[in-house]
Amino acid sequence: GESVGLHLPTLSVQEGDNSIINCAYSNSASDYFIWYKQESGKGPQFIIDIRSNMDKRQGQRVTVLLNKTVKHLSLQIAATQPGDSAVYFCADLNDYKLSFGAGTTVTVRA
Amino acid sequence: DSGVTQTPKHLITATGQRVTLRCSPRSGDLSVYWYQQSLDQGLQFLIQYYNGEERAKGNILERFSAQQFPDLHSELNLSSLELGDSALYFCASSVEASDSPLHFGNGTRLTVT
Predict the structure, then answer these.
(1) Res A25: pLDDT
(2) With an 8 Å Cβ cutoff, are B43 and A89 in contact?
(3) How far apart are CA A66 and CA A34, in angstroms?
């Protein structure tokens, strides 16, 4: 079965606000996590990754936080823009298999 | 653009038929992965190849098979198609066999009628 899951299937955010998307994983042996963004009609697009020896990693307007104690992963998007509207997936790479959560649909309100 | 190319973009076929989906990985990537995405199942891992060898298998039906060729492109063959096989099929590639991000193509949308 899936080793990762997301807390909420949908998230509505005001343009300019920060977004937080959460993900819980169950496999304590997981050591590599990836966030993807999928827009309609396209394949999943790599956003940011983090390894289990880190608890935070920052990219351009995005931050991933990893809490291994509670097996929780989050993606923070700063100053959310209309172009951030998409489905976001967390994924856990373990034993050569990348397992995806169910996805959170983010809608940005103007 | 991820650099992963999938053809065809769309495919419509009848039940019982066989189709072949093709994937060209990013330049330099040795691993190729196949995923199926349907509305009720999300993204499901099917199979992975690394430098021509099968490396990992997921929820791939026996009616489905894949291979990776010496030039590293890959094909996914789907046979005895059923209505339930209608889905988006994605190919992804990565540099290493593990612990490196996967880069996805834009998929092949298969419709079985």
Answers:
(1) 87
(2) yes
(3) 11
pLDDT tens digits, one per residue of B34-91: 999 997 678 999 999 999 999 999 989 999 999 999 999 999 999 999 999 999 999 9
Question: Whole-angstrom Cα distance, residue A88 to residue A108?
Answer: 13
Confidence of residue A29 (pLDDT cuts 50, 70, 90): confident
Q: How far is B45 from chain A (nearest CA, A)?
A: 7
Nearest to B56 among A51, A97, A102 (CB): A97
Phi, psi of A9 (to 5 degrees): -75, -25
Q: Which among A93, A18, A74 has a CA at the least distance from the CA of B58?
A: A93
Q: Is the dihedral of CA B2, A32, A3, B33 positive or negative?
A: positive
- Yes or no: say if B23 and B35 are a contact pair by the CB < 8 Å rule: no
Which residue among A98, A101, A102 sits closest to B102, beta carbon to beta carbon?
A98
Mutant choice from B36, B53, B54, B102 vs A, greatest count of A C-beta within 10 A: B102
